[in-house]
């Protein structure tokens, strides 16, 4: 089933993430403006602390957890930007997180994720693809009864990411 958030849900998410995600500017793309003989503006989501809009969805989802869910911790699967958003949110909110990444994830992405999460996260390099990591993460999550923080297919993640607009 496709989820379409209400405007009130997006506004509430914006309030939640305001402490970690600022309003990002639009910048004219000279290249694309010339190429298409138009005025093309790009949203500078790379200016966030984790260099991606993914902090919006991850932080909103993790912030929505109740006390018991926070105590159990969270799990995600990602090859990069979502992992960094989850790691940052775990550190900021002081919630334990387990982040599954494919074994082929670039060292820089693993190091950045570790830096953002600090002592609050554990990284598990598992599988050759995102799908392998995701399957392992979901299995671990169910076994340990933790909350899975999906990179895009979750109402709270969607509401947070929708604040980009």
| Strand runs, count | 6
| pLDDT averaged over residues | 95
SS field, number of helical segments: 8
| Rg, alpha carbons | 17 Å
Q: Overview of this structure, please?
A:
This protein is of the alpha/beta class and 165 residues long. It has helices spanning 7-17, 30-35, 54-63, 67-72, 81-93, 107-117, 130-144, 155-162; strands spanning 26-28, 41-43, 74-77, 97-101, 121-125, 147-148. Strands 5-4-3-6 form a 4-stranded parallel β-sheet, with helices on both faces. It is globular and about 55 Å long.
What brief labels describe this structure?
single chain; 165 residues; alpha/beta; four-stranded parallel beta sheet; two-stranded antiparallel ribbon; 8 helices; 6 strands; globular
Can you lay out the helices and strands and say which pair or pack?
Elements: H1 7-17, E1 26-28, H2 30-35, E2 41-43, H3 54-63, H4 67-72, E3 74-77, H5 81-93, E4 97-101, H6 107-117, E5 121-125, H7 130-144, E6 147-148, H8 155-162
Parallel strand pairs: 3-4, 3-6, 4-5
Antiparallel strand pairs: 1-2
Helix pairs in contact: 1-3, 1-8, 3-5, 3-8, 5-6
């Amino acid at each position: 089933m496709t989820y379409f958030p209400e405007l009130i849900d997006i506004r509430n998410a914006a309030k939640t993430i305001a402490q970690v995600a600022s309003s990002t500017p639009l910048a004219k793309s000279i290249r694309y403006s010339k190429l298409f003989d138009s005025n093309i503006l790009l949203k500078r989501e790379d200016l966030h602390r984790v260099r991606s809009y993914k902090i919006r969805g991850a932080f909103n989802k993790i912030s929505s957890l109740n006390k018991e869910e926070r105590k159990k911790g969270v799990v995600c699967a990602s090859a990069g930007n979502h992992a960094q958003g989850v790691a940052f949110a775990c550190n900021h909110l002081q919630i334990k997180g387990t982040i599954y990444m494919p074994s082929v994830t670039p060292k820089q992405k693993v190091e950045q994720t570790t830096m953002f999460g600090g002592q609050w996260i554990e990284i598990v390099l598992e599988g050759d693809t995102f799908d392998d990591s995701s399957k392992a993460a979901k299995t671990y999550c169910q076994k340990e009864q933790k909350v899975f923080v999906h990179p895009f297919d979750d109402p709270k993640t969607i509401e947070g990411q929708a604040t980009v607009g």
